[in-house]
Each structure stands twice: as C-alpha cells, then as structure tokens.
Specification:
This protein is mainly alpha-helical and 508 residues long. Helix 3 runs parallel beside helix 18, helix 6 runs antiparallel to helix 23 and helix 17 packs antiparallel against helix 24. The longest helix has 30 residues.
C-alpha cells in the first residue's frame, strides 16, 4: 500500500510510524488473490501433459500420433514438430499478451478486484470449451479465453498482493503468486498422470478441471476487499481508511494512510505514464525491469521444459505414464525451490540467487546437451542409467530456476519502478513476459527438431548472457526501501552516468 512507494522526503519520514499485525483478514485476502497464480500454473502443467496423451493426439493430431510411432524412420527429436499442435499451446499466451492492455485499463479504473473477477470468468469459459471440444477450432478458441483470463490475472494479482502487504514482508507475500503457480503445475501433472489411464476421455478431464481454480478464484474474489490504493484512486477515502485498518489490524494507520493519499495524488499528476517510462532518468528501470528480466525469464528454457516435459521424456524413450510421473517430480522441485526462495531471498539477496543459480543452470544445460548428443537420436533406446541421469539433471535445473529466475522475475521488477511509472511498468512486465512465453512455446519444438541437442546449448549461452546482464547492470535491492531504490542508480558504476546526465539537464 503504501506498498506502492514514497517519492517525497516527508513520506519517508513517516515510514517508521507504520504499524501492522498479521490478521486473519489479511491472510485470507492474500491467499485468495494468490490463487490467480494457480490458473497460470495449472495451464502450464496440463497443456504439456495433454499434448503427449495418445487419445488426444489421435483425435486432433493424427499425423503427429503416427509420426510418434515411427522411431526408426525419422529423428526422434521431430516426433512432435507440428505448428498447429504448438499453436494449441502458444495461442493462450498471445491472447494473454493482447488482453494485458485491456486488463491494465480495468485494473486502474475499476479496481484490482474487478480484473481478478473478469480473469476467473474468462478462464472458466475457456476450460469448459476445451473440455467439450470436438475440433481444433474449439480448442484454439478455448485457449484464447484461457489466455484472456491469465492476462487479467497476471496484471492484477501481483499488484494486489503488493498493495495489501506491509512493507516489511512484501517480498515474501509477492512470492505467494509464484508459489501458487508452482502448486498449480504440481497438481496439473498429478492429474495428468491419473487421467492418462482413462481412455479415451482422460484428456477432457485434465482440461476441464481447470474450472476448479477458476471457480475458487471467482468465489473468493467476490469476498475480497478492494485495495486501499484503488479505493483512494476512485475517491472513496472513508472506505479506503476502513479497509486499511481492517487489513492492518489496528486503527493507528494515520501515517500510512497519509502516504497512500500523497502517493495517489502524485501518480494522478502523471498523465502519460508510458511516455514517462521512456525518459532517460527511468532508463535503468525500463531496460532491466520492463524488458530485460521478463524476457530473460523465458529465455532460460524453463517454460519450454514445463510445457513439454511429458513430450521430452516420452521422446527420450520413457513410456506415457513414466513421462507424466517424471513431470510430477520436476514440478515438485519447483514448489520446493519456491519455498527456499521465500525463506532466504531477503537474507541472501537477489543478485546472489540470480548468479549462483545461473551458474548451475548453465552446467545442467551443457550436461543435458552432451548426454543427448552421445546417447540419443534416430530411434535409439536410452539406457536406463542415462534416462535416470537426465531426469536428475532436469530436476536440478528446475530447482535452480525455481529459486532464482522464476520468483525473482516477478519480484525484482516490482521493486525497481518509481511511483509515477509503476502501473505502466507492470503492464510492460506482463506484456514482455507473455510475448516471450508465446514465442518460446511456438518455436521450441521446431527448434528441437532442427537443432536437436544444440537447442540446450543455445539456452546455456542465453543463461550466460543474462547472468552477465545481472552482474553488470542490477544493483542489490535486498532490504532497500522502495522509495530509496532510485538512489541506487546514482551510485551504480554504469547507470550513474545516464541518471546524473538527466538530473543535470533537468536542473538547468
């Protein structure tokens, strides 16, 4: 709330006067809102599992099914190379990318709660359409509706959590969104593992059960309070004050409420936040927070593994059930990694997690590529020892990603933007994130077919580049109040030249 940030010295002087208690009302609000991450996570987990199910492929992609059986006639890497099949997955993210701009308007004008409700309704309708699909057109339209739901959810939920949480625990509370996403992936893989045994309609159950998180999010959303930030922006000061007192568990909220009102006035004074984001003084936030981190988060190759983990494992010679079981193991690693990150990120810092995990991820990608180059291709059957080694490597890669680029890809951008560009910055983060998610989803299988094991070397190279990006350009934001983050740029060996030049220009 004042989770949003203070830009003036008077606000900074009041920060030490904030009081709060962890109330049941606060916990309920955050858990319900964070369930929005489960929509994203469930789809990440379920779509890859469904596209590896024989019953699903026979009905909608018979060519892919036939190709899948022909181990000796073509490279095993190409069994699932089909642009319509990948469009089934990536259409959701293209829809989410476009809907993010509409979601930004609704979130700003109608409130965070409104966007959460719209997102849950759209996701529900998409799940129903996918479960009842009789042709590819119904599948794609259903995916588009799911994408709209995710676009609205990803726009509103992180913002809601940030505004509802006290400043001292904002980092951990923000990561509830990532934890919820990981739990959604875990549950989806478990469901796929069971429904794959139900012939010939198990895939319908996997897709249709997406209505459960959507229903939970909708019903919970009806009971959610609007954030005090949004209420103040709408001029509902009395209601905002009451909600603030209820969430904080105390009536002593004068200082925080005053900062909230001041921050809202400052934000409303900026008529063109996107244009403001392009100013030279905001260049670090634009390059690192709005573009670099959300793009690099997808270029690690992690979402490709999540999308197609069942497909990858099946291509590696595992049976259908075994592949889904392996995916269940990797999604469990993602949940474990999220808990590790929540527990230690405020102690060890963001940069250490990025750089240490990045080093590990490079090694795992290289090991994966070398193993596949030596042991896999042209219908070969992998030895059991090699297969288990690959599962372990992927498990460790997921564990490294899940405590670094996964959660920090959302947390760090939320810490970098100043008040006047925060709404525009969040829209850019979601937009860039979903664009690269869709791009990777659409290109991964065709790249796997043509580059074979080389695709994992490409990801290793990208991880090296993004680790250098973090090392040279990102200052440590651990325990730095949001209102003081702007001072970090003036002290940074690279950014200080850009920021100070702007300050000198404005001074003249």
């Amino acid at each position: 709330m004042a989770g949003s940030a203070f830009e003036d010295t008077e606000a900074a002087k009041r920060a030490h006067l904030y009081e709060h208690k962890i109330t049941g009302y606060f916990i309920f609000s955050c858990i319900v809102a964070a369930s929005g991450g489960a929509l994203f996570g469930y789809d990440l987990g379920v779509s890859g599992g469904v596209t590896s199910m024989d019953d699903f492929l026979k009905r909608f992609f018979p060519k892919v099914y036939r190709r899948k059986q022909e181990h000796l006639k073509e490279t095993d890497y190409c069994k699932y190379d089909n642009q319509i099949l990948t469009l089934f997955t990536s259409s959701l993210y293209f829809a989410g990318l476009i809907s993010t701009f509409a979601a930004s308007h609704v979130t700003r004008k109608k409130g965070r709660k409104a966007s959460i409700l719209v997102g849950s309704i759209s996701f529900f309708l998409g799940a129903v359409l996918n479960a009842s699909a009789v042709n590819i057109a119904m599948l794609i339209i259903g995916r588009i509706l799911l994408g709209v739901g995710i676009g609205f959810g990803n726009q509103a939920v992180p913002l809601y959590l940030s505004e509802m949480s006290p400043a001292k625990i904002r980092g951990a509370v923000n990561q509830l969104f990532q934890l919820s996403t990981c739990l959604g992936i875990l549950v989806a893989n478990f469901i796929n593992y069971e429904t794959d045994k139900l012939h010939p309609w198990g895939w319908r159950l996997s897709l249709g059960l997406a209505v459960v998180p959507a229903t939970i999010m909708f019903l919970g959303g009806l009971a959610l309070p609007e954030t005090p930030n949004s209420l103040v922006e709408q001029g509902k000061f009395d209601e905002a004050r009451k909600i603030l007192e209820k969430v904080r568990g105390t009536s002593k909220v004068d200082a925080e409420f005053a900062d909230l009102v001041d921050a809202s006035k400052a934000a409303q004074a900026i008529k063109h936040p996107f244009r403001n984001l392009l100013k030279r003084k905001n260049r670090p936030q634009l390059i690192i927070g709005a573009v670099g981190i959300p793009a690099f988060q997808q270029l690690t190759g992690m979402n490709s593994i999540l999308f197609y983990a069942p497909v990858i494992f099946q291509s590696l010679g595992f049976g259908s059930n075994a592949s889904l079981y392996s995916s269940l193991i990797t999604s469990g690693a993602l949940v474990l990694a999220s808990l590790i990150s929540m527990a230690f990120v405020d102690r060890w810092g963001r940069r250490k997690f990025f750089l240490e995990a990045g080093s590990e991820m490079i090694c795992y990608m290289v090991a994966l590529a070398i193993t596949l180059a030596l042991e896999f291709g042209e219908g070969k059957t992998l030895p059991k020892g090699t297969s288990y080694f690959l599962v372990i490597i992927i498990f460790l890669f997921v564990l490294a990603y899940g405590r670094s680029w996964g959660p920090l890809g959302w947390l760090v951008p939320s810490e970098l933007f100043p008040l006047e560009t925060r709404s525009a910055g969040q829209s850019m983060v979601v937009c860039i994130n979903l664009f690269f998610t869709a791009l990777i989803a659409q290109c991964f299988l065709v790249s796997l077919c043509h580059l074979r094991y080389g695709i994992f070397l490409v990801f290793a190279g990208l991880i090296f580049i993004m680790s250098c990006f973090i090392y040279f350009l990102l200052p440590e934001t651990k325990q730095v109040p949001i209102e003081e983050v702007s001072y970090l740029w003036a002290k940074h060996p690279i950014w200080k030249h850009i920021v100070r030049d702007e300050q000198r220009t404005e001074g003249k």
